[in-house]
Amino acid sequence: MLAVRLVETPLGRMAVTAGGRGVVRLVLPGQAEAPAEVASRRVGAADPAAEAVAERAARELAEYTAGRRRTFTVGVCLDGLSAFQRTVSRALRRVPYGRTVTYGDLARRAGRPGAARAVGQALARNPVPILVPCHRVVSADGPGGFGAGAAMKRRLLALEAAALRTGLEPFDARREPMTRSDGA
Questions:
Q1: pTM for this prediction
Q2: In the 8-state DSSP scheme, what is residue 3?
Q3: For the chain, what are the domain ranges?
């Protein structure tokens, strides 16, 4: 059974859905399906491994939105994506915090030069925005699309730029081990 966590952040409420192998879905404020709707569909007890992943994701997202985390250690499960979508996701996860690439640049990084439009379609199906940072992809002539809306995309990019400007020390997972959700 999957685990769901609602995460209150400065950007608004998010909903994390996780299985034992990683986060399978992240719903942001502004997306068609509201985070509270996701949480209301939860039925039964979740697997302890899924609960631990969901708890870790919630903590890392809270740190990210506070400007204290630049990379994520929580796993993502992209089983429902095509091979091309997974390739694009892997290439996108290598785009550094606070940087942007164009759809064309990402297509080249994914080994498919000339497939910028296909990259955009793959990103539109990204089930875990922020964790697979599709907000860092812009069009050659503007910000480009984003499932949670252009305003949220601008806020995410501004958050990363501000954290880089202030020189905040990024979160170091080695100094704070993962806590378990069962209280142990």
A1: 0.85
A2: E
A3: 3-65, 83-166
